[in-house]
Amino acid sequence: MPPFQPLEPQAGAIMPLARTDTRTVSTLLAQFGLRLQLLPLDEAIPGSYWGAPEAGLIGTTVYVRPDTPLHSLLHESCHVICMDETRREQLHTDAGGETPEEDAVCYLQILLADRIPGFGRKRALSDMDAWGYTFRLGSAQRWFEEDAEDARQWLLRHALIDNSSRPCYRLRRH
Predict the structure, then answer these.
(1) Which runs of consecutive H residues, i.e. helices, occur in the chain?
(2) Tens digits of per-residue pLDDT, 12-50?
């Protein structure tokens, strides 16, 4: 069992997938070669590290339900994007990775939030705080704006973003 449990959000406090256009999200993930698998609301989510309603991972498929938080869907998707090919080939539930990669995952999910109409960076940062992400500066926004250059550099080194911090729509190779 994971040592950390997400905070219980207030009802409606975190934006679920159902409040956006699923096709847009599916198209965004497809640009990276990922597949979004939407499940019925009452079905268990395969590959979910935290359990439903959090997103699940098996290979390059991201499993979600309408109540899956958008930030969770993006976070797990970014794990797949940021991991190397060897781990991706064996991926089932636990994305693993070291702290620098986890930071890069968080950074990239914030960038990708802007690609989802009605969600965006500001809402993603707020939802990350509401879920229970912790950062040295006390909030996801302060971390992103003031303390995330190492995460940005990691993404640049692996050619996952360009010099203007725009996603390159590819998976990490090695």
Answers:
(1) 22-30, 70-82, 85-89, 99-113, 120-131, 140-146, 149-157
(2) 589 999 999 999 999 999 999 999 999 999 999 999 999
